């Protein structure tokens, strides 16, 4: 047989074996992937929302960036109402939640928290002529809240401790979007809405409302105030997943990915400082 033909056949065999081996490894890796379902309500822009029928937002794209570096997992998102986001993590239906989630002592008892993803001052959206610096300036004012969230709990506590300066709280359904809370302030249905500075600023700008966003002095606050997190369950597998996600978040912080996503989706550099990455988790 011609020597060149023999050499060619040999090279073809080696190349084919290499391709088949690579394909086999890829197929094996995919077969061994563990599915991770991340819950979100897609109703907390700019962290999580739908755009042209696609789920996106800061929390969502950061989640995607994290799992690109964790090939042992297959990422899947589940869009569901807010109340079911955390209960689904609690009962093991979901392995992680990405939904502009803040820290509360009650939640910390049941869930694991990632390193902080972003930081935004607690603020109020009000009419331009309304002067607000502290909670005292909101005495007697009306607002809409979702039961169980950090803002609602804080205002309820304030009302109990300051009955002569109580605010009027109207409880809304979990399906009521943040944009409607802001719209109700613009229309005069309520006097203010308290939320994070990033979200309020973006909604007012996009809707061209005649409102201002004012950071509010809450006095002595918990070190977690203003931070946004991923949430996990607390069993062995959940903790292992949380550790891997945190390790990747550190890499994405250092290589600038978190900063770029913050600029794109949050409208500025709202990522935590280096020292806050660890201090605001525990």
TrEMBL record:
Classification via InterPro entries: Solute-binding_3/MltF_N (IPR001638)
Residue ranges of domain Solute-binding protein family 3/N-terminal in the record: 35-269
Protein name, as recorded: Transporter substrate-binding domain-containing protein
UniProt cross-references to Gene3D superfamilies, sorted A to Z: Periplasmic binding protein-like II
The organism's place on the tree of life at top rank: Bacteria
Signal peptide: 1-22
Keywords on record: Signal
Matching SUPFAM superfamilies: Periplasmic binding protein-like II
Pfam families associated with the record: SBP_bac_3
Organism: Pseudolactococcus paracarnosus
Keyword Glycosyltransferase attached: no
């Amino acid at each position: 047989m011609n020597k060149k033909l023999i050499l060619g056949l040999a090279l073809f065999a080696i190349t084919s074996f290499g391709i088949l081996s690579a394909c086999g490894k890829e197929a094996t890796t995919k077969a061994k992937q563990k599915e991770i379902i991340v819950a979100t309500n897609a109703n907390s822009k700019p962290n999580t929302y739908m755009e042209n029928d696609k789920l996106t937002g800061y929390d969502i794209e950061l989640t995607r960036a994290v799992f690109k570096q964790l090939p042992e997992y297959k990422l899947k998102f589940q869009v569901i109402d807010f109340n079911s986001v955390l209960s689904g993590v609690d009962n093991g239906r979901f392995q992680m939640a990405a939904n502009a989630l803040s820290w509360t002592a009650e939640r910390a008892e049941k869930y694991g928290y990632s390193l902080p993803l972003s930081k935004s001052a607690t603020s109020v959206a009000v009419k331009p002529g309304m002067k607000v610096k502290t909670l005292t300036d909101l005495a007697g004012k009306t607002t809409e809240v979702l039961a169980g969230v950090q803002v609602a709990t804080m205002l309820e506590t304030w009302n109990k401790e300051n009955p002569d300066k109580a605010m009027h709280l109207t409880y809304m359904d979990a399906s009521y979007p943040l944009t409607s809370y802001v719209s109700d302030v613009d229309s005069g249905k309520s006097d203010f809405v308290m939320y994070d500075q990033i979200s309020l600023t973006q909604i007012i700008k996009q809707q061209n409302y005649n409102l201002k966003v004012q950071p509010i002095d809450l006095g002595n606050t918990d070190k977690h105030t203003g931070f946004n997190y991923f949430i996990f369950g607390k069993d062995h597998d959940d903790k292992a997943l949380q550790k891997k996600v945190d390790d990747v978040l550190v890499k994405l912080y250092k290589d600038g990915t978190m900063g770029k996503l913050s600029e794109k989706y949050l409208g500025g550099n709202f990522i935590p400082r280096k020292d806050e990455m660890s201090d605001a988790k525990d």
